[in-house]
Write a structure and sequence with these properties.
CATH topology: TIM Barrel
CATH superfamily: Aldolase class I
Structural class: alpha/beta
Bound molecules: 1,3-dihydroxyacetonephosphate
Distance between the termini: 26 Å
Low-confidence stretches: none
Strand order of the largest sheet: 1-2-3-4-5-6-7-8
Mean pLDDT: 95
Helix content: 40-55%
Radius of gyration: 18 Å
Largest sheet: 8 strands, parallel, barrel
Number of helices: 10
């Protein structure tokens, strides 16, 4: 069942757990996320990033996710990840996305606030939830410690949420997209300070490679959505590499199926960790 983000994130924040958002960009990634969620009887967020428009048609992705979500009573969200273009947000909503992220993190605070406000006005009028980002979760930062100036400022977060009326806020607290060089330093004090003053669900981007203890602590502190992309792609690539190294790799349909199987298992590990399953 397709729902918007509030229907899964608000209860998650109350329970001190997080809902996983996995990036999807083809049938295999979407099917892997769907199968893992159904196997574990768990809500999930399908996240299609604006950057994947070059490899996948947004309407076709929406149709695939709608088909999967329609097959179960489990709450599932079709979310547009990291979108800088208002036009693409309109297209996603038209295609049936139930949630969008407007990423104004590279804009000035004032412009991010003004543009996010416009997106929220439009999205809320059609029942679509909005995530925004304040501070900057780097895409190309391979260091284990993110510089202080990237982090979300508490007073700005308070003002931003109150004025824009966003539903969820992505905060920069030490994570980065992609692979880390060494153990990332997560600024838990900052999460604590933001969560004490901002009651909406907080979002952690760059979920791949963050130590389990940091994830668990962040969830207790108020992080209710965690984004994962790199690690799911890596297990599929590793599987394909191993299969292609064989003398007779076989038919593409079988290779893709094997890659999907590997992704299902990896997706399940994250879902279990984010809902605090014993032994996850
Ligand atoms: P990773 O690729 O580091 O898992 O981050 C994913 C993400 O934050 C997508 O928005």
């Amino acid at each position: 069942m397709l729902v918007n983000m509030n229907q899964v994130l608000v209860p998650a924040r109350q329970q001190g757990i997080a809902i996983a958002a996995f990036n999807i960009y083809n049938l295999e990634t979407a099917e892997a996320v769907y199968r893992a969620a159904v196997d574990l009887n768990s809500p999930v967020i399908f996240a299609f990033g604006e950057q994947y428009i070059k490899v996948a048609n947004i309407k076709i992705i929406a149709t695939i996710v709608q088909e999967f979500a329609g097959r179960t009573g489990l709450p599932m969200v079709l979310h547009l990840d990291h979108c800088k273009s208002i036009d693409v947000i309109y297209k996603a909503v038209q295609a049936g996305f139930t949630s969008v992220m407007f990423d104004g993190s590279k804009l000035s605070f004032a412009d991010n606030l003004a543009q996010t406000k416009d997106v929220v006005k439009f999205a809320h009028s059609v029942g679509v939830t909005v995530e925004a980002e304040l501070g900057s979760v780097p895409f190309d930062h391979k260091q284990s410690e993110i510089p202080e100036e990237y982090l979300t400022k508490v007073d700005e977060a308070v003002r931003f949420v109150s004025e824009t009326k966003v539903d969820a806020l992505a905060i920069a607290v030490g994570t980065a997209h992609g692979e880390y060089k060494g153990r990332p330093k997560i600024f838990h004090d900052r999460i604590e300070e933001i969560a004490a003053k901002v009651s909406i669900p907080l979002v952690l981007h760059g979920g791949s490679g963050v130590p389990d203890e940091d994830i668990q602590k962040a969830m207790r502190q108020g992080v209710s959505k965690i984004n994962v992309n790199t690690q799911i792609s890596s297990v599929a690539v590793k599987k394909l590499k191993a299969l292609c190294a064989k003398e007779k790799p076989g038919h593409l349909s079988d290779l893709m199926h094997e890659a999907e199987e590997a992704m299902v298992e990896e997706v399940k590990l994250f879902i279990k960790l984010f809902r605090n399953d014993a032994g996850a």
